Amino acid sequence: MMQMQFTPKIGLAGVQWMFFILTNTVVVPLTLGQAFQLPAAQIAYALQFSFILTGLICMLQALFGHRYALMDGPAGLWWGITLSLAASASMGGSSLAAVGGALAVGYMLSGLMMAVLGWLGFVKILIKLFNPVVISVSLFLLTVQLMRNFFTGMLGIQENGQLNPSVALLSIGIALFVAVVYLKAPGWLSNFALLLGIMLGWLVYELCFPGAGGSEQLAAGAGKVKLFPWGEPRLDYGILITSFVVGLINMSNTITALTAAEKLYGQTSTEGQYRRSFLLTGLFTMIAPVFGMIPFGTFASSLGLLESTKILRREALVVGGGLFLFLGLIPPLGHWFSKLPLSVGSAVLFIAYLQMFGTAVRTIKGIAFDSKSIYRLALPLLLGICIMTMPPVVFAGLPAYIRPLAGNGLVIGIIMAIILENCVNWRRLGDPSAGKHA
């Protein structure tokens, strides 16, 4: 591993990382607070601790865990599952507090499972399951899921479900500006295209829409806050099983992220790196529900930032994580940064994550596909996209705790890819590359 080194360029890259972490984190506690009908003071409390814990785990992972510039934070997969289960509470005849308390227990036990399995070397089994085709499917579907979210955020959707033309036009302008800086500016300047896009975009947004902000300002300290804000911990076997299944899929995201990072860094990750990474993520996952947060995960989407900026030094993530931790320790400052307009952050990340598509393509470089073997890639990928584009009401008739899994295109696509890669003999079907990669 490279020796730690801090320079002005690393410091500026750290500020860019701080904004990247912010745009991937700030919306999570706000939407969860609304889903569980929490008071503003409790949401502010969760927002503060999300900054502290996310900044801390990013620093620890870069220094002692996987030791790559890969963000850890509230995992998007867990976010979708949590919102789905909260929304289905009333339909299933349960209270929000009952579902929330069961989720807290399920998430803490899932975190324990991740830490224990990771430390015992379960990664060897996961690596066998996640060959290049499965990893490529994971990256493709993650790219589609994220790009859909960012594109929606760029449009400035209003309460009536229609886009806001002024906000959408500004977002397109910001996205084009970032793309031009990245493609045309000198090397040192193109490395900071995302940071320039966020700062200038935010400034222009405030000039065009004064006081419109991204998230409403929260009054920290006003009112009573408590631990386990979603509900008192309780055991529910349905939610527990769902938590374990999603926990295993979430572990696979670490495999995907570290395997793809190996190609960027030109090195092979050791078993120790995987063990330490799973241990840290598992421990922070166990802590998260205490403060009303979802479990943590390694963001494979960090690869988009690395590909865009070409700054691979882990010191930059240490600086960015430290700055983000600082925002959590100074609540008024953190709440001010949380007002970053969603449309601005979405426009910048829309350009950054285009690079993930290239990573997915390069992952299967050298694998030949014919009229039969193309199914190993096309079926899980297109099935996952089809599920992503379906309205949630399609799955309303399924049992409450199967619904979040069945309606998640990313999860179903990954599971289908694993089944096809481990149950079908592609070499017998005429794919000469199957033996090398499966």
TrEMBL record:
Pfam families on file: Xan_ur_permease (PF00860)
Primary location class: membrane
Regions crossing the membrane: 43-64, 76-98, 104-122, 129-147, 167-183, 188-205, 278-304, 316-334, 340-361, 373-395, 401-420
Annotated InterPro entries: NCS2
Localization in the cell: Membrane
Family the entry assigns: Belongs to the nucleobase:cation symporter-2 (NCS2) (TC 2.A.40) family.
Protein's name according to its UniProt entry: Uracil/xanthine transporter
